[in-house]
Write a structure and sequence with these properties.
The protein is about 40% helix and about 15% strand. The protein is an alpha/beta fold and about 260 residues long. The protein folds into two domains: about 120 residues, Nitrogenase molybdenum iron protein domain (Rossmann fold, 3-Layer(aba) Sandwich); about 120 residues, Rossmann fold (3-Layer(aba) Sandwich). The longest helix has 22 residues.
């Protein structure tokens, strides 16, 4: 059982961040996780680990039964949770990377904390090589489609943080937002001025179970170039919203759509 005492000397981890869960498994540390948040669903093995609910408001008493020695939280929405759990006596590592380089650094930090530095180095190198391979292919596209990636539907929010970097790597011109800036609400007027060639729906927590009509049917959005040409795509949001190894797959997906558009 996951919540029984362990006798192999490994640290018991409560991973309350889906990105942290994915990174831990990629580093071969999945067996140390005693519980996760409700959204940790990758890889498949993560689904079998006990999940705790209320992603931003996990209660200390809920965690106690799993006896974690370290709790992992992530990104800005769990900042207050990290503070609350520290005050409750837990050892908490909170990561809030907002650029791709910061994502690499978060992986290296886990490598140091859990004494798997070589594996962390290898994982970062694999990510760098994967993204560089996408960038090399994207350099041959010939033009840079304007890409609007939406993180939330009501109000509409542009994907910030590392996502614009991923768009550039994949060969597109992202909606103008400063590097590393948090996702923010946008108006139709702002999107219309940008007039994207490609719209990518990446609604947080929705996976790929999204009805495009919820975006395409908004008043005034039918005038956007991407809507008129049918270039509105839905991506499993975990490929873009989680600062971890699968950002490479997200970049590959974006590149593939832009390649189809231009050929």
């Amino acid at each position: 059982m996951q919540n029984e005492e362990r006798h192999d000397g490994s640290v018991r981890i409560a991973s309350l961040s889906p990105a942290a869960t994915e990174i831990l498994f990629a580093l071969g540390l999945g067996g140390r996780i005693v519980c996760t948040d409700q959204f940790s669903n990758h890889p498949d093995e993560a689904k079998a680990i006990p999940h705790v609910r209320d992603h931003q408001n996990v209660k200390a008493e809920t965690l106690i039964e799993y006896k974690p020695e370290i709790v992992l939280t992530g990104i800005s929405i769990q900042q207050n949770l990290a503070v609350d759990l520290r005050q409750a006596g837990f050892t908490v590592v909170h990561q809030d990377p907002r650029t791709i380089n910061a994502v690499y650094e978060s992986i290296r930090q886990f490598g140091t904390i859990f004494d798997v530095e070589e594996k962390a180095h290898t994982l970062v190198l694999q990510m760098q090589q994967g993204l560089n391979a996408v960038k090399k292919k994207a350099s041959l596209l010939g033009s840079k489609p304007r890409v609007y990636v939406e993180e939330w539907l009501e109000p509409p929010m542009i994907s910030g943080n590392w996502v614009p970097e991923v768009v550039r790597i994949a060969g597109g011109e992202p909606f103008p937002i400063p590097p590393g800036e948090l996702s923010r609400a946008v108006t139709l007027e702002e999107v219309a001025r940008f007039n994207p060639d490609l719209i990518v729906i990446s609604w947080c927590g929705a996976g790929s179970l999204v009805d495009k009509k919820l975006l395409m049917g908004r008043p005034g959005w039918d005038a956007l170039r991407a809507v008129q040409t049918g270039h509105v795509k839905v991506i499993d949001d975990s490929l873009l919203n989680r600062p971890g190894p699968r950002l490479v797959e997200g970049a590959q997906r974006l590149y593939g759509w832009m390649f189809e558009m231009l050929h």
